[in-house]
Structures are given as C-alpha cells and as structure tokens.
Amino acid sequence: MAEASSNLARFDGVRYGHRNRDASELIDMYTRSRTEGFGDEVQRRIIIGTYVLSSGYYDAYYRKAAQVRRLLRRDFEAAFASCDLIAGPVCPTTAFKVGDKADPLQMYLMDIFTISANLAGLPGMSLPVGLGADSGLPVGLQLMGPAFSEETMLGAAHCLEQALSALPEPAC
C-alpha cells in the first residue's frame, strides 16, 4: 500500500489521470479529480500507504516490510530452483457479487494469495478456470514465475485455456 500510495501520487489531474473540469481553484481541482478518479477501496489503500510512509512510522512498518520482502524473494528463488511456475488460487473464495464484500478487511483478505508476487517483484497472472459449484461464479487460478518468465507463463496459460475449452460443458 505504501508503494501504491507513492506511485498513485502522480495521478493528480494535472499531469496524469482524471481531471475535474469544474473546479475553481487548484486545491479544489486536486481534491475533486482524485475523489472522482479513484474508488473508495483505492482511496483507502492510498491513505494507509501514506500513513505507513509518514516520518514516525517509516521504520516501524516500511523498513520491516522491506526485510520481509527480501526473505520472501529468497524463498521464491529456492522454490523456482525446482519448478518453472507456481499455480495456486487467486483468492480464498470464488468470485462474489458486486457489493457483497463491503467490509475493507474482507477485501484485503481477498488479496492474500496474490500479494506475494507483488511483494517479491515476480510476474504473476490470474485466469478464470471454471465456475464454483455452489455459487456459479468464476474461480480464478494464479500463475507465478521467476523474473522474466512471462513467455513461459503465457504459454502455460494458453495451454490451460485450450485444455479447459475442450472439456464438455457441465449440466446445470
């Protein structure tokens, strides 16, 4: 969230991002542009990231997270010594209907399986692989690979899509 906050700071409506044309002053334009350009969840994550990067909390949070990142990267490097890709779920549940997960904590928990690729700086992708038996909503599969393995990941995803399209449609 700290990196999202710093990366999204440039989307101020002046150089990048949505610009509100009705604002009368610069501060008003910044406020309106960022409010309209970012949804509630993105705004929440920006605020948390800004908090983490503030002077009194940098050492307590960001520095510790950087140390964990190094350990996580080392673990992935060890795993990729014996495999080309890692496959796993995108999130702990099937997809949910819009508005069903309004609690921010539930939303953060939905990222639990995908955030490790971002933290370790590894390429990752998700693709739909079917529908949940109980909900009928999409189920996602995540592929992660070592640095610069995008070609391998795309090839694996293509093969998986071909195999899934050859399966018969389930009877409802």
Describe the structure.
This protein is mostly helical and 172 residues long. The protein has a domain at 84-172. Helix content is 49%, strand content 11%. The chain is built from 7 helices and 3 strands; from the N terminus they run H-H-H-H-E-H-H-E-E-H. The chain has helices spanning 2-8, 26-37, 40-53, 58-80, 104-109, 115-120, 150-165, and strands at residues 86-89, 124-131, 138-144. The protein has a 3-stranded antiparallel β-sheet with strand order 1-3-2, covered by helices on one side. A hairpin with a 6-residue loop joins strand 2 and strand 3. The longest helix is centred in the middle third of the chain and has 23 residues, at 58-80. It is globular. The model has no long low-confidence stretch (mean pLDDT 88).
What secondary-structure arrangement, pairings included, does this model have?
Elements: H1 2-8, H2 26-37, H3 40-53, H4 58-80, E1 86-89, H5 104-109, H6 115-120, E2 124-131, E3 138-144, H7 150-165
Antiparallel strand pairs: 1-3, 2-3
Helix pairs in contact: 1-3
